[in-house]
Fold each of these.
Amino acid sequence: MVRGKTQMKRIENDTSRQVTFSKRRNGLLKKAFELSVLCDAEVALIIFSPRGKLYEFSSSSLSKTIEKYQKRAKDMGAKTGEIPMQSSKGNTVDLEKKIEQFEVTRRRLLGEDLGSCSVEELQQTENQLERSLTKIRARKSHLMKEHIERLKAEERKLLEEKRRLLEEIKCGKGSTPASGEPPREESHMEIADVETELFIGPPKG
């Protein structure tokens, strides 16, 4: 089956857009890693999700790579008489804004600095928290289920051990004593009736 050509436009469905972002983000990070290893290249990659979550990769130090890029761009601008640093500064400013937005989002998720939030922003934060809680509860439920299964397995093992010990005790009671002596029979004392007579007078001759 031939796959259709992907149209380069925004995906309207939220779920499909998130799935596509996750797949392509992972692919991009993988390619950046492979490029750094296979070609011994210095690679730095920065990605911000639609919700402001930061993803990054650097084959060395991200800050040093950015600094190296800015220095190189400045040197190239000086040689050609152009001013590419303005573009670099603009990119740096945009990056700083995104990092600041990421920090704002993080504080809101922690319940901090909510005084300046609008109703829409609070609703978005609430929705994001609910999605996070759903994932957390699902993971917790999975771990609890695994723990319960382990406890049940241990219980079955203990019950089997108990049954085995009871069988051994039962077999031990039915065996002949080690001395080989037959079991003693209980003696019964027979009580004979004794008749006594009372005589008054001298004894009979």
Note: The first strand starts at residue 44 and ends at 48.
Amino acid sequence: MAADIPIIDAHIHLYPSSELDTLSWCTPENPLAKQRSVEDYKAASAGVQPAPPQGFIFVETDRKHDLAAGVKDGSGWKDPLAEVAWLRRIVTGEPRDGEGHTKDDAKLCAAYIPWAPLPSGPEAMERYIEKVKEVAGDSWEKVRGFRYLLQFQPDRTMLTDEFIESLKLLGRKGLVFEVGVDQHRRGRGQLEELLEMIDRAHEGVPAEEKVVFIINHMCKPDLEVYNTHTSTSFIAWRVSMFALSKASRTYMKLSGGFSEMPDSLKQRSAEEIFDALTPWLTVLLTAFGAERLMFASDWPVCTVGVGEEGALEKWKKIVERLCWMASFDEEQQRRIWGGTAVEAYGIAS
């Protein structure tokens, strides 16, 4: 990788210790149950060669929420809006004591993606987006879209009329939808729903108003599969990747791999892990190409089972090896390491 190719890490999570109790998944025994700050991220990425990422994209951390209370009086949106306030402090360089960032760190956040109540429908979404604008203040221009994490939700959550109309609203506003699904644990059904969701959200919509979908973590495939030639899980995932790639305005993140592989593989070298993941990475490369793939670390989730030190650099080496295997030229490498993210999120140059 050339030294002058800048890296934008397209998927990280941050949260202050003062707000751990607002995280829906946070229990005392969870290895991620401690503050994760910009300072921590900088330390974790300091060893990345030839240079650490020049910027990152923050993705919401699944704060506690209540959809019904949100629709009624906005009270169910309190914790997600507190997250927006936290990102505002980072982006505007106005830290509170102990939060682990400085005024100089403000430039690192290229964009951020808050939570949003898409199942509540477009009217509630309009009100919520206005609330986000109010809380975000001067950082609003960094809000490039929203996520409602689908991987844990009941079947067909993403296929209700309310959800589809919320997606169309995002498209009209030029905001992306960040897609988090999980083929490993939810099976092919969730991928089939994702394909239907995208088709319905784009149906009859002018090209310039179609919502952009940015898909997280390769759709979380089962990376414990040994024989990809006979695995029904792998075959279903592969078919879905090619089907997704045919949808317009759809991008894929090269991220989240460590969470889906066996613990024994996590401890191996980047080269050995790449060899094990080659069937999946080859499919993504063929389906999406450099123009619609982007590097993302999923820090700090990528450290679980891998180690606090070196996890981000290890994942970067895996993606770097993919670029080498594909014989990407410099322009294609620039797409993977930041150009695709800049385009997909509409980040100002």
Note: The chain is about 40% helix and 10% strand.
Amino acid sequence: MQGPSTKSFRQAFLENLLISLQLQQEHTSKHDSSSLGAAMSLHERKLAVKSSADVAMAAARGPGARWTRAILAPASSACKVQRCRRIVIRCRGHKRTLKRSARGGGGSTSNGGEVARRLVRRRTMALREVIPGGRDAAVDEATLLREAMDYVVHLRAQVDVLRQVSEAVQRSGSSILQ
């Protein structure tokens, strides 16, 4: 596993992002020639960049977390280009099965305890909806929280790298205009 703040993670993320974006462009140009040059809408571009960034982040993270497998599984089935498949296969190749500890029961039956349990259950369900792979029933709360923390840390790294790329593109664009 590469930490999100390491140079190797950022480098792997950028490499995977560039490959994925190139593949998106190749895929779009093939379809544009057959559809009389219909350009991608802004919304379609946004979705293409987001999915490319998510796949690149999951591939750079490695196969240790559920959320990476949840992101890469649909990408591997939807991706038609061989180079994109190689990225996904390289990342998914080292699957590890994780043993989950059984849930413990118990607790007080007081009214305050019941309200707290309902609140925790409601927030856990909301978290399951946000984290890729969180809807899996086999994930206990402790694993879900670890996955959420890992996912958020990597999302933050993704934002930082994309912000740096955006600033570099803006700087290069402004230097060309001058």
Note: The helical segments are 7-34, 42-61, 66-78, 82-92, 111-130, 141-177.
Amino acid sequence: MQRFSNPLLKHIIHRGYFDAASKRQCLQYLRALRTLQLNGFNTVFLGETDISESLITGEKVDKDASLRWPVWTLVHAGSSQGWVPWRYRLLLRGDLPIHQQNGIFQELCDSLTISYGKCVIVTRDKMQPMRVGATDGQEPETGTLPPVPPVIYMSSIKCCPEVARANGHELLLVPSSYKYLYPMDVAWSSLKWFIINNRKDFALRSIERTHSYRCILFSDLIVKGIENMTPSKWKVATNKVKRWENYYLDTFS
């Protein structure tokens, strides 16, 4: 008789060596976030995702060949109201000069000031996967902002806390071990599933005597994929984040 593993085992959360430090970091992050929210800061989540050419075309390639294919990085931000009214960036990996990496975050801060006023911008730091925060066993003070590196590196842009503060915002790092506190993954999943299910509708084919060509309306596909993550879906995703925030605050306090 064939036996299958219990699907509940897929959701086991393994506790690591830094479990206690991770809890303190999460608690400090959540307390700082709540304090900023009570002081009138709007929460905005900033993130990025990679879009490979094979995802757009639907062609199946082996892993080694895929490394030579172009990859675009999409940078965008969202909140409980939906995507922020900002001109998102779709960047070819490795094709953006260093000085422009700083300018993109400045443009976002300017746009947020106009649209929302003061914001707390929550993002990830891909260059620093290890936890940053209280590790000395001391209980973090309520409302104390957790330590943030001078520069937060995403794959395509740099985010500077000083630039954020100069525009009236604050920049926070979501704890790396607590993915449920970061709704951008839900938004990227929505985008990529839309691409997979609808890319044929954005492809034009031209058949000539000796060759055939296929043209994919890449920009239109991305725009519609982003629109697929509607304000109502954002509301559901951020409400789920809030429930997890409340759970961790009650559990770790």
Note: The chain has eight helices and ten strands.
